[in-house]
Amino acid sequence: MSLEEELAVIMTVNGERVARSIPVRQHLVDFLRTELGLTGSHIGCEHGMCGACSVRVDGAVVRGCLMLAVQADGCDVLTIEGLTESEEVADLQAKFVERNALQCGYCTPGMLITAAELLKQGKPVSRDGIRAFLSGNYCRCTGYHAIIDAVEETLKARTG
Amino acid sequence: MKLAMNANARLTPLDRPNSYVGRTLSRVGARRAVAGRGTYTDDMSLPRMLHAAFLRSPHAHARIARIETSAAERAPGVVKVMSGAEVAKMCTGPWVGTLTCFPGMKSAPQYPMAVDRACWQGEPVIMIIAQTRALAEDAAELIEIAWEPLPAVTQKETALDRTTPVLHSVLGNNLAFRKVIDTGGVDTALENSDVVVEGTFDFGRHTAVSLEPRAILADYDKYTQRLTLYTSSQVPHMIQTVFARTLGVPEHNVRVVAPDVGGSFGLKIHTFGDEIAATAAAIALGRPVKFIADRLESFVSDIHARENRISARMGVSKAGEIQALEIDVLSGAGAYSQFPRTSVFEANLILNITGGPYKHKYYRAKASVVYLNKVPTSQYRAVGHPIGNSVGEALVDWAAQATGLDPIEFRRRNVMPDDSYPRTTAAGIKVADMSHQRCIDVLVERMGYMALRKEQAELRAKGIHHGIGIAAFIKGTAPGPRGYYGAGGAPIASQDACTIKLEPGGGVICAVGVTEQGQGVDTVMGQIAASILGVPMEQVRVISGDTDATPYGGGTYASRATAIGGEAVFQAAHELRSEILSLAGTLLQAAPSTLDLLDGQVVDAGSGRQRISLAEIGRIGHFQVGELPNSVQPVLSVTRRYRLLEDLYIFTNGIHGAYVEVDPDTGFIRLLKHWVVEDCGRIINPQLADEQVRGGCVQGLGGALYEHSIYDEAGQLVNGTMADYLTPMAGEMPDIEVAHVQTPTSVSELGAKGVGESGTGAAPAVVMNAVNDALRPFGARVTTQPMTPEVLLKALGKV
Fold first, then answer.
1. How much is the pLDDT for B14?
2. What are A11-29's pLDDT values in tens digits?
C-alpha cells in the first residue's frame, strides 16, 4: 500500500455524517483540522505525549495523533466543537473562564475533553485524583492549579 | 495588603471604588478558547498556499561536500527545493548576533540556513516547498547530502582549551563574551569572614516547549510588494523590522500579525532561520508558504537556555552577616549567538542579580560565555534568574547553617531594609520600592513556618524526610532603553505605546504595542483604559498583535507588558479623557474641571448628574463638528509612548517557600506545597497576577526537577521527544499559594511592575533549598539541576 493511497471512509463527526476519501497515512487530527476545518483540536507533539489533540471516539478519549483517520471508519467522533454545541460541559467551560484555568488556550480543548470523561463518571474525586487523571495533558501556562480548581469545583457542583 | 501611596502619583480614576483596576475580571479571549474557537497560526489557510519542511543537519558539526536534490525536485507535489546558499542569496547579507552594549562580544556571521557547513544538529540545511507538509517531508527523504563530519565542541569546560578545535576560525577562539563585576575588597572581606561557604553548581540546558510550536505563514503580494506574516510571536514589530532588513523588503511594506499564540515564554521573541527561509520562499514563489515546526524539530531548533556551571563562595561573620560574595560563571552558548538578542543575556543577568536581595558591599562576579556545537541559546522565561537565585540562595542557606541561624532569621538580618530605598546593589544595580522584610513576614505567616518546622522534626523521627525551602529574590522587569537591546544596536523598542480613540458610537479603541499570549494583556490594558475613561469594560476594545493596527512597540517579554505598556495606556487614556472633558465643556459651556466621566457619561463632578453621553460626544466630534466653534477641532485620538528614563529595569522582589518530601532510597522528590509572596507594585487584575506566578513557578520547577536537553559527546541531542524530555504534568505539581505586597514603582503613575517571571525566577532555588534541607540529616547536598533521582542518589552516595 503506497503512502498516497486513499480509502473511502464514512464516519460521524460532531453528529454529522462525513464521507471522504482519506490518505491512509493521515492521522485523525490532521484529517479533522485540514479536511473538516475543525481547528479546535490542536497538534502539540504528534507522538501521543501532550494530549492537545485529544478527541472522543465512540465515547472514549483518544489521542488524535495516534489514530489514523481511516481507523475511524464507522466511528462516532466528537471534537471540542461538538462538545461545546452539546453543552455537555458548559458548566466546566464556564468554570475554566471564571477560574482562569487557561492562558494561551492551546491545551484547553484536549484538557476539557479529558476532564469531561472524569465528570461523566459522576462521582467525587480527590484533588490528587483529578491531578492524576489529567496527567496526560500538558499545559505550559497555568501550572495546573487553576485547572484542578475548575474541575474540582465543577465536580462538586455536579455531585453535590 | 495595603497599597503604599506613590509619592509622585496624582489621584486618578484608578483609585475610585468603581475602578476596574484591582479587580478580577475574566479574560476577553478565554470564552472563545474554551469553545475551541481560538485561531492560531496553523489554523489559518490562504489560497494557493504551500508548505515548507526542512532537512536538518544530522551532525553537530560537518562540512557539506555535495547536495543532490534532483529526485526531491521531481517528487509528487514538490514546487521548489532551496539550499542554504540559495536562501542566502535572497538575504541582504549574513547577520551577526552581537550587541555593542556587550563590549568585546563576538559571534560569527550567520545565514538563515547552513551554507557550507552545519554547526549544530538540527540546523536547517535544505528547504522543501510542496503542496502539503507530508509531501514536503517525503521529498526530504530523497535528498542526498555528502557530509564530511568535523570535530564537535560539546563541553563548555574545555571549550577554551588550546587543544579544543575552534568552532569559527574567524573568531580566533570559542569565547563569545567575558564580563567582570568587581567592587574591590572581596579578597579582604572573605579573609576577614568567620565562615566561608562554597559550592559548584551545574544547570542543564532546557528549552521552552511551548505547546504550540513556532509557526509562520508568509504571504507576499508581488503586485503591491507587500509582505504579510502571520506568526506566533511576542514581538510583531521586531519581526517586521528584522525580516524587512534581512530580506530587503521595505519595512513599511511588511505587516506582521500575531494571531492567538499558543504559549511563548521568551521562545517567540526571537528570529529563526527556518522562518526567514520560509518567508524567502514565499517571496520567491509569490505564493503563501506555511511553516509549522513539529515537536521533534522544535527540540533541535528552538532556542535553548540555562546551560551554566558556577563556582561560588560567600563569606559571613559569626553574627550571620554576609560579608562578600564571589561567583564565577561558565555559560555554554550554542553554535552562534542568537540574532538579534544575543546568547549572553543569561550570563549577564546572573552577574547582575546573584545575591541581589542582600546588603553586602563586596561582590566579584566573572562570566565567560563559550560557543558549542549545540542549538543556540537565548532568552527563556526569567533569563538568568533561576540560576543566579539558585546559587545565591543555596549559599545563604549554607551560611545560615554554618552560623547556627534559622534560614528565615538569617535572611531577616541580611536583606535590604524596606526603608532603605533607593539604593544600589553590590552588583551596581539601582533598585527601589522593594519590600523584602514585609514579604518575609507574609511568607512566615502564610506557610505556618514554625508549625511546619515542628512537623518536619516529628516526621524525621519517623524516617520521613521533609524539607522546607526558602528563597528570596529580586527580578529585573520591564527593561529600560539604557544598556539594553536598542542601545546595543538591535531593532528592538524598549518603549511602548498606546493609541486610544473615541469612536463615533462612544466606544473606545485601544491599540497597544504590547502583545497577548494568554497572560491577559488585552484585558489588563482594557481595565486601565476603561477606568481612566470612566466607561464600562464592554465599551473598550483592545487591539494588539498587528503592526498595521498598533503603534510601534516592543511587544511582550521580560515582564514588561503591564509595567511599560500599561503606563502608555494610562497616559494616553488620560489625554483622551482631557480632550473629551474639554469638548464637553465647550458643548455644555462648563469648565472642564467641573466635569467628570462616569459609566460612559459626562457628569457634573460634584453631584454626578448626567450631562452628555460619550456616544453623543463621539457623534458630534466626528459628524457634527459644524456645531463647534471654528477654533475647536476634535481629534479624539491620542498616542502616548512610555519608557524608563534612568533605570536599567524596574526591579521587583519577593520570596518563595517550598515543602517537599525526599525518598532517600529512590531519590524521588515529592512537591507538597509551594508559596510565593511577591511585590509587583500595583496589581491591575489579582487573579491574572496570581496565575502568572503559578504558571511561572511550574515552569521553574520543570527546569529544577525534570527538564534537560541532554547531549552526548558527539553533540547529538539524545532526548528530543516529549517521551524522553520530561515536562511537569499535573500529577507531580503542587498547589501554589500566592500572596502579594504592593509597593508601587515610583517610575510610573500606574505603579505596576512586572509579574510574569517572579514564579520562574526563584522556584528552582527554593525547591533546591528544600531538597537540601531534607537531605541535611544525611550530610548530603545537591547542586545540580535538574535534580533527578540519579542526582540525589549520587549526592547520597548510593550510586
1. 83
2. 999 999 999 999 999 999 9
Q: Are B513 and B550 in contact (CB under 8 A)?
A: yes
* Contact criterion met (CB < 8 Å) for A103 and B42: no
Report phi then psi at A104, rounded to 5.
-70, -25
Task: Give pLDDT tens digits for B148-157.
Answer: 999 999 999 9
Same domain for A77 and A126, yes or no, is: no
- pLDDT value of position B485: 86
Which residue from B minimizes the CA distance to A27? B134
What is the ipTM, given to two decimal places?
0.98
Q: Are residues A60 and A124 in the same domain?
A: no
**Domain final residue pick, A49, A83, A117:** A83
Residue of A nearest to B42 (CA): A39
Beta bridge partners of B180: B366
pLDDT at B10: 56
pLDDT tens, residue by residue, B4-54:
444 444 557 887 878 999 999 999 899 999 999 999 999 999 999 999 999
Are B36 and A140 within 8 A, CB to CB? no
> Is the four-CA dihedral A64, A69, A75, A76 of positive or negative sign?
positive
SS (H, E, C) B779-799: CCCCCEECCCHHHHHHHCCCC
The string of DSSP letters for A2-14 reads: -TT-EEEEEEEET
Rounded to an integer, what is the distance from CA B364 to the centroid of its chain?
A: 27
Last residue of one domain, picked from the residues A64, A83, A102: A83
Q: Which residues of chain B have pLDDT under 50?
A: 1-2, 4-9
Q: Are A135 and B722 within 8 A, CB to CB?
A: no
Q: What was the pLDDT predicted at B381?
A: 98
Same domain, A33 and A79: yes
> Is there a domain that residue A64 lies in?
yes
Is A134 in the B-facing interface, judged by CB distances under 8 Å? yes
A104 and A55 within one domain: no
- Of residues B646 and A82, the one with the higher pLDDT is A82
Contact A145 B26 (CB under 8 A): no
Q: What residue of B is the nearest CA neighbor of A100?
A: B26
> Within this chain, do residues A56 and A97 fall inside the same structural domain, yes or no?
no
Nearest to B722 among A23, A39, A45 (CB): A45
Query: Measured between CA atoms, how close is B726 to chain A, in angstroms?
Result: 10
Query: For an interface test with A, which of B729, B732, B736, B755 has the most A Cβ atoms less than 10 Å from its Cβ?
Result: B729
Residue whose C-alpha cell is 535538574 = B786
- Asked if B275 contacts B231 with a C-beta cutoff of 8 angstroms, the reply is yes
